[in-house]
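Hey, I was hoping to borrow your eyes for a little while. I've been puzzling over a protein and I'd love to understand its fold better. The fold is given in discrete form, as structure tokens running alongside the sequence. I'd be grateful if you could look everything over and explain what you see. No rush at all, and the record is pasted right below.
>
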Amino acid sequence: MDNQQTGSKAYLISIVMVAVLGGLLFGYDTAVISGAEKGLQAFFLGASDFQYTDYFHGFSSSSALIGCIIGSALSGMLATNLGRKKSLIIAGILFFISAYGSMNPEFLFFEHGKPSFDLLVVFNIYRVIGGVGVGLASAICPMYIGEVAPSNIRGMLVSWNQFAIIFGQLVVYFVNFIILGEHTNPVIEQIGQGFSKVAAGSDPWTIATGWRYMFGSEMVPAGLFAILICFVPETPRYLVMSGHDDKAREILGRINGFANADSILHDIKNTITVKTERLMTYGFMCIFIGIMLSVFQQAVGINAVLYYAPRIFGDMGMTDPMVNTVVMGVVNILFTLVAVFTVEKLGRKPLLIVGSIGMAIGAFGVAVTFGNESLSLVTMLSIMVYSASFMFSWGPICWVLIAEIFPNTIRGAAVAIAVAFQWIFNFIVSSTFVPMFNMHLQPGDDFGHWFTYGLYGLICVGAALFVWRLVPETKGKTLEDMTQLWNERNKR
């Protein structure tokens, strides 16, 4: 009887848990490079047919992001034409192919263990394939959760997707740490601007094998996701847009209670006159705010810390950078839970504004203290404040807003555009971090360190002002309310 009135919480939780596996893979795939990048660099520094420069390495470390841009750009078309569920199945298959290919790029065509320029190209192709999967999952997983979740807990459930992303990053930090075991990452020495070499005595196992196991470990969660996603339903809102009202009512009934299903179905149908509308139907600001949420989430620079954490901690003189990276991952998990359990109480805007201010304080703290050994503890704490502030604000809340801020009839295309901008700026930040961080006005100075984090700090201040002035509060609103919200804004 209760399920007739309120729906089955177990059913809702089960399908959301499967969907957030896509978030876990998103985090796993983007963070696996943090442990593998030094071994990968040392491997390709051994190539005889070309010189593997720092710029090649910067590209290889972030090449998956090119696929993320492609995948997120395609996500709207796939989500609209194939549906949310089938698009996620495709993402799972791409994750699996990428994991195997990145572990064994020599597969079929090359001699195993012999680095070459052609092998580097193939490796990056496999990383791009995985990036396409990440791009699809990053756009469609929160969209899927947002479209199946009741409005009173939608923010919390979409926030679990961010928790899964950070948990995926923490899992891969642990996996990389376990794979490394008693081995050590190779030591990379600078031999000129943009050029490096492997220091004598570096561990040969890590160079030849360790990075392969790190990439290959993703096959386990990727295979599990691709199988489990086959057993979840399509979202009710997509089913209504596709003319399958009976199926939509059945799923709405199981989630919200059959007593409420007809009312919710009626509201959905009232806002869906056609499967899609023109992108600018609800005005320029609707799309602009969605895009800028994505831009600021990346421009604040958090992924420069997440992707290069072991390298940063090593440059700070920490004795075991991988352990420090795991500690940071645990802190990130804890502060993501703050957002999960407060987003429906405090709202979206307050968390974003407070998080932006906390990030600015942390970034300015790193800028002022980095490189000063007597203040290394302050630097470490500043990085933790910077990272933790992101985790309870821009990390989860950006995804919540992107999943819910757009009206039903433009959501697929609008989310695709917003998330594509997110990955474009992710690529810009990730690929420019190392060159900016290593900039010098004169030999031996720390100009690049304070300039990089000072810039990120200023962007955090800009993010707080943007949210305060322009972003609407969506707490407690249904997805169908978004149509009314933007129509009213356009009339002002």
Remarks:
- The beta strands are 188-192, 195-198.
- The chain has a mean pLDDT of 84.
